[in-house]
Amino acid sequence: MDENESMTLQELVAYVATILSEAALDQPSGRVSEVPSLRTVRYYASHGLLAKPVAWRGRSALYHMRHVLQLLAIKRLQAKGYALEDLQARITSSTDEQLAELAAWRPPAFQNAPDPPPVRARQDFWRTAP
After folding, report:
1. How many CA atoms lie within 13 A of 3 on its CB side?
2. Is the pLDDT assigned to residue 111 strictly greater than 60?
3. With the C-alpha atoms ordered 72, 114, 95, 56, is the resulting torsion angle positive or negative?
4. Disulfide check for 73: which of 20, 59, 67, 103 has CB 3.0–4.6 Å away?
5. 3-state SS class at 62
6. Largest CA distance in the chain
7. pLDDT for 71
8. Is 57 left (phi over 0), alpha (psi -120 to 50) or beta?
């Protein structure tokens, strides 16, 4: 898959599931699902753990390789025992290189393209009024 190739949410989940199935997550507690579902990815996006879609095709959101790296990093860190609340700032402010390290996976066509500017995470965004 090309780094800038767009994929739908269903394609994103299937791609991440394929990658995770090849490298089993070692999670002692067994409380974290090994593969994210559509519902889980929507939950991550609504809580600021996943970057916004890069574009829309009709009503379908489109995602890039950065989203793949974010999901892989989330699942790897969850398997190590990190809570989602602890991951938000770490995941959203990381460069693609840092995400690849956290995810323990390198995209096939990973080039030295400039990273998008990091998204500033709002601390405790659910506790403050808009």
Report:
1. 15
2. no
3. negative
4. 103
5. strand
6. 42
7. 96
8. beta
Tokens linked to 68: 């793949």
**Across residues 24-29, what is the average pLDDT?**
63
- Tokens standing for 110? 């990973």
| CA–CA gap between residue 73 and residue 39 (Å, rounded) | 18
Q: Rounded to the nearest 5°, which phi and psi values hold at 65?
A: -65, -30
Token code pair at residue 58 = 């009709």
Each as own residue / partner, the long-range contacts of residues 26-29 (CB below 8 Å, 24 or more positions apart, any chain) are 26/79, 27/78, 27/79, 27/80, 29/81
pLDDT in tens, 42-90: 999 999 999 999 999 999 999 999 999 999 999 999 888 899 888 988 9
Higher pLDDT, 129 or 69: 69
How many residues would you count in the chain? 130
Rounded CA gap, 48 and 69, in Å? Answer: 15
> What is the value of pTM for the model shown?
0.77
